[in-house]
Design brief:
Layout: H1 2-21, H2 27-36, H3 42-55, H4 58-84, H5 90-93, H6 112-127, H7 132-148, H8 154-178
Helix pairs in contact: 3-4, 4-6, 4-8, 6-7, 6-8, 7-8
Length: 183
């Protein structure tokens, strides 16, 4: 029973993955997803946090500090889980997966890009809810890009989204509850 359930869940996940990845050859989608995916990468997320911490004041600086804390504390567990639960990336496990040249070769679970972007944007959204309409579609696009590019399964992205959001919320809660904020 357990094996059949797991098999059905994996088959569903593979169908969902393929429904996103099958559009890989479309020129406009390629341009969009190949570029937006980098917003969840280390260079972009760290650069945004450091810029806000060192070159802004007041609320933006607090958001930068909160996002930096969130990014740090979300990255460490992701790196550990990738080592403890080595899951092959979809392009290595599924036939006919479309993938760009020189894809990542580390493990798939969970999505580090998705975790990073959500851990950085959640403090922004909590401090400045009006930014939700801009930041949430960007973060969702980063998650979709990871499947579109053949690098992650939907569950990798979902766990990254949930974990990044949780750590972002936790960082926000700690900063606002235990530190005096000049708002």
């Amino acid at each position: 029973m357990k094996t059949k359930l797991m098999t059905n869940m994996y088959n569903f996940e593979c169908r969902l993955f393929r429904s996103v990845n099958r559009h890989f050859d479309q020129k406009m989608l390629n341009f969009y997803f190949r570029n937006i995916t980098h917003l969840g990468g280390a260079i972009s997320t760290i650069a945004v946090c450091l810029f806000l911490v060192f070159f802004t004041k007041d609320l933006l600086q607090i958001i930068g500090i909160t996002s930096a804390i969130s990014l740090l504390f979300s990255h460490l567990p992701v790196a550990l889980v990738k080592k403890l639960y080595p899951r092959k990336r979809p392009y290595l496990a599924l036939l006919e997966t479309k993938v760009p040249a020189n894809p990542l070769e580390d493990h798939s679970f969970p999505s580090g890009h998705t975790t990073a972007i959500f851990s950085v944007i959640i403090p922004f959204i909590l401090f400045m809810p009006q930014l939700t309409v801009i930041l949430l579609p960007i973060a969702i696009s980063v998650g979709l890009s990871r499947m579109y590019l053949g690098l992650h399964y939907p569950s990798d992205v979902l766990v990254g989204c949930l974990f990044g959001s949780f750590v972002g919320f936790l960082s926000y809660t700690i900063i606002t509850r235990f530190f005096i904020l000049p708002l």
